[in-house]
Each structure stands twice: as C-alpha cells, then as structure tokens.
Amino acid sequence: MSWNYRIVRHDDHGGWYAIHEVYYNSKGQICLISVDPDGPTGDTMQDLVADFRLQKEAFKFGYVKYDRKLAKPDWEDQLTALLERDKAAP
After folding, report:
1. Could you give the angle at the alpha carbon of 59 between the alpha carbons of 33 and 39, nearest 5°?
2. Can you give the C-alpha Rg of the chain in angstroms?
3. Averaged pLDDT of the chain
4. Count of domains forming the chain
5. Given this model, what pLDDT does residue 73 score?
6. Stated pTM of the model
7. Where in the sequence is the domain holding 58, given as residue range(s)?
8. Separation of alpha carbons 8 and 62, rounded Å
9. Measured between alpha carbons, how far is 89 from 47 in angstroms, rounded to an integer?
10. Would you call 18 helix, strand, or coil by DSSP?
11. Alpha-carbon distance 2 to 70, whole Å?
12. In angstroms, rounded to a whole number, what is the distance separating the alpha carbons of residues 57 and 60?
C-alpha cells in the first residue's frame, strides 16, 4: 500500500478543489481518500516545510474526483485494516 497527496475535486457547492491524502492498494488503485482536506503540518519548521513540499508534488498529477464511497469518517481505522490485509497477502 502506498499513499500521496492529491488534488481532489469536490462537486458540491459549485465545485472546488483541495489537497487530500490518497491511499492506493497493491494494484495502484485508489482505495481511500481522507475525508477532510489536508493542510501542511509539522512538529518543527523543518517538518512543516517537508510536508509542504510533499503537498506541492500533488500539482504534478491530475486531479481525482472526490468519491464519498472512498472517503469514510473512520478512514484511519480502515487504513489500518487494509495495511494488515496487505501484510497478510502473499
């Protein structure tokens, strides 16, 4: 399983864009999208700059459409379950 930041298009309220965490399964397909947009954060200024740079990478890719089926309120629990399932797969 892998993840990155992606630009996500929301179709509600006339359409808008935000950066979200997007997770991919072992086949490279999107399997989870963070429910809420994600801004850069860090425990130190260096961490903040590093996170900002990772988010800046999202602009190199096209946007993905927000899919409510992939964005679940308990996405962190689901991510843990997916990671455990990936570890168990041959």
Report:
1. 55
2. 14
3. 88
4. 1
5. 62
6. 0.78
7. 2-88
8. 9
9. 33
10. strand
11. 15
12. 6
